[in-house]
Amino acid sequence: MARFQGSEKEMRALNTYVKLMRAAESMTVRAHEHLSSAGLTISQFGVLEALHHRGSLSQKEIGQKILRSSGNITMVIDNLEKRSLVRRERDQHDRRSFIVHLTEAGKKLIRKIFPPHAAVITHEMNALTAAEQKTLGALCKKLGLRGKN
To answer: Mean pLDDT throughout 90-113?
Structure first.
Protein backbone atom coordinates (compact mmCIF):
# COMPACT_ATOMS: atom_id res chain seq x y z
CA MET A 1 0.00 0.00 0.00
CA ALA A 2 1.41 3.34 -1.01
CA ARG A 3 1.71 6.10 1.56
CA PHE A 4 0.15 9.45 0.82
CA GLN A 5 2.74 11.77 -0.64
CA GLY A 6 1.35 15.21 0.07
CA SER A 7 2.97 18.49 0.91
CA GLU A 8 4.75 18.92 4.22
CA LYS A 9 1.73 20.88 5.48
CA GLU A 10 -0.69 18.08 4.46
CA MET A 11 1.51 15.36 5.94
CA ARG A 12 1.83 17.24 9.26
CA ALA A 13 -1.95 17.86 9.42
CA LEU A 14 -2.83 14.23 8.59
CA ASN A 15 -0.26 12.84 11.04
CA THR A 16 -1.57 15.09 13.81
CA TYR A 17 -5.17 14.18 12.99
CA VAL A 18 -4.44 10.44 13.15
CA LYS A 19 -2.70 10.85 16.52
CA LEU A 20 -5.59 12.94 17.87
CA MET A 21 -8.21 10.42 16.75
CA ARG A 22 -6.27 7.41 18.06
CA ALA A 23 -5.73 9.08 21.42
CA ALA A 24 -9.41 10.07 21.64
CA GLU A 25 -10.61 6.58 20.72
CA SER A 26 -8.19 4.92 23.13
CA MET A 27 -9.27 7.25 25.97
CA THR A 28 -12.95 6.72 25.13
CA VAL A 29 -12.62 2.95 25.35
CA ARG A 30 -10.81 3.08 28.70
CA ALA A 31 -13.08 5.75 30.16
CA HIS A 32 -16.27 3.91 29.27
CA GLU A 33 -15.36 0.28 30.05
CA HIS A 34 -17.32 0.41 33.31
CA LEU A 35 -20.57 1.32 31.53
CA SER A 36 -21.24 -2.22 30.41
CA SER A 37 -21.65 -3.30 34.04
CA ALA A 38 -24.48 -0.74 34.30
CA GLY A 39 -25.93 -1.89 30.97
CA LEU A 40 -25.38 1.50 29.35
CA THR A 41 -24.04 2.57 25.98
CA ILE A 42 -21.77 5.61 25.68
CA SER A 43 -24.70 7.61 24.27
CA GLN A 44 -27.01 6.57 27.10
CA PHE A 45 -24.38 7.56 29.64
CA GLY A 46 -23.97 10.89 27.83
CA VAL A 47 -27.70 11.60 28.14
CA LEU A 48 -27.76 10.72 31.85
CA GLU A 49 -24.62 12.77 32.49
CA ALA A 50 -25.98 15.80 30.61
CA LEU A 51 -29.26 15.69 32.53
CA HIS A 52 -27.42 15.18 35.84
CA HIS A 53 -25.17 18.20 35.35
CA ARG A 54 -27.44 20.50 33.34
CA GLY A 55 -30.91 19.60 34.60
CA SER A 56 -33.87 18.79 32.37
CA LEU A 57 -33.24 19.49 28.67
CA SER A 58 -35.08 19.21 25.38
CA GLN A 59 -34.18 16.27 23.16
CA LYS A 60 -32.63 18.75 20.72
CA GLU A 61 -30.42 20.26 23.44
CA ILE A 62 -29.33 16.79 24.56
CA GLY A 63 -28.41 15.86 20.98
CA GLN A 64 -26.34 19.04 20.66
CA LYS A 65 -24.60 18.41 23.99
CA ILE A 66 -23.59 14.84 23.19
CA LEU A 67 -23.15 15.34 19.43
CA ARG A 68 -25.80 12.89 18.26
CA SER A 69 -28.40 13.20 15.48
CA SER A 70 -32.05 13.75 16.35
CA GLY A 71 -32.96 10.25 15.15
CA ASN A 72 -30.24 8.65 17.23
CA ILE A 73 -31.05 10.67 20.33
CA THR A 74 -34.73 9.65 20.09
CA MET A 75 -33.75 5.97 20.10
CA VAL A 76 -31.31 6.47 23.00
CA ILE A 77 -33.96 8.26 25.06
CA ASP A 78 -36.57 5.61 24.13
CA ASN A 79 -34.27 2.95 25.57
CA LEU A 80 -33.56 4.95 28.73
CA GLU A 81 -37.29 5.55 29.15
CA LYS A 82 -38.00 1.80 28.85
CA ARG A 83 -35.62 1.31 31.80
CA SER A 84 -37.41 4.09 33.73
CA LEU A 85 -34.20 6.14 33.93
CA VAL A 86 -35.70 9.19 32.20
CA ARG A 87 -39.16 10.50 31.45
CA ARG A 88 -40.34 12.82 28.69
CA GLU A 89 -43.00 15.46 28.80
CA ARG A 90 -44.22 17.83 26.13
CA ASP A 91 -42.65 21.27 26.20
CA GLN A 92 -45.37 23.68 27.31
CA HIS A 93 -43.90 26.40 25.06
CA ASP A 94 -43.45 24.21 21.98
CA ARG A 95 -45.83 21.26 21.75
CA ARG A 96 -43.65 19.69 19.02
CA SER A 97 -40.78 19.33 21.48
CA PHE A 98 -40.17 17.09 24.50
CA ILE A 99 -38.33 17.92 27.72
CA VAL A 100 -36.40 15.01 29.20
CA HIS A 101 -36.06 14.58 32.97
CA LEU A 102 -34.07 12.15 35.08
CA THR A 103 -36.24 9.86 37.17
CA GLU A 104 -35.23 8.91 40.71
CA ALA A 105 -33.81 5.65 39.31
CA GLY A 106 -31.85 7.64 36.73
CA LYS A 107 -30.50 10.00 39.40
CA LYS A 108 -29.49 7.06 41.57
CA LEU A 109 -27.70 5.34 38.69
CA ILE A 110 -25.76 8.38 37.46
CA ARG A 111 -24.74 9.28 41.03
CA LYS A 112 -23.38 5.76 41.37
CA ILE A 113 -21.49 5.52 38.07
CA PHE A 114 -20.24 9.09 37.60
CA PRO A 115 -17.60 9.12 40.39
CA PRO A 116 -15.77 6.04 39.00
CA HIS A 117 -16.03 7.58 35.52
CA ALA A 118 -14.42 10.80 36.76
CA ALA A 119 -11.73 8.78 38.54
CA VAL A 120 -10.82 6.87 35.36
CA ILE A 121 -10.60 10.07 33.34
CA THR A 122 -8.49 11.72 36.03
CA HIS A 123 -6.18 8.70 36.08
CA GLU A 124 -5.84 8.68 32.30
CA MET A 125 -5.22 12.42 32.11
CA ASN A 126 -2.45 12.11 34.69
CA ALA A 127 -0.25 11.03 31.76
CA LEU A 128 -0.08 14.80 31.16
CA THR A 129 1.02 17.51 33.55
CA ALA A 130 -1.52 20.07 34.71
CA ALA A 131 -0.06 22.59 32.25
CA GLU A 132 -0.21 20.05 29.40
CA GLN A 133 -3.84 19.28 30.22
CA LYS A 134 -4.66 22.99 30.11
CA THR A 135 -2.85 23.38 26.78
CA LEU A 136 -4.54 20.31 25.32
CA GLY A 137 -7.92 21.59 26.46
CA ALA A 138 -7.32 24.96 24.83
CA LEU A 139 -6.11 23.37 21.59
CA CYS A 140 -9.08 21.01 21.41
CA LYS A 141 -11.47 23.91 22.02
CA LYS A 142 -9.76 25.88 19.25
CA LEU A 143 -10.17 22.96 16.82
CA GLY A 144 -13.75 22.34 17.91
CA LEU A 145 -14.78 25.94 17.39
CA ARG A 146 -13.05 26.27 14.01
CA GLY A 147 -16.13 25.18 12.05
CA LYS A 148 -18.27 27.77 13.81
CA ASN A 149 -16.26 30.74 12.52
So the answer is: 92
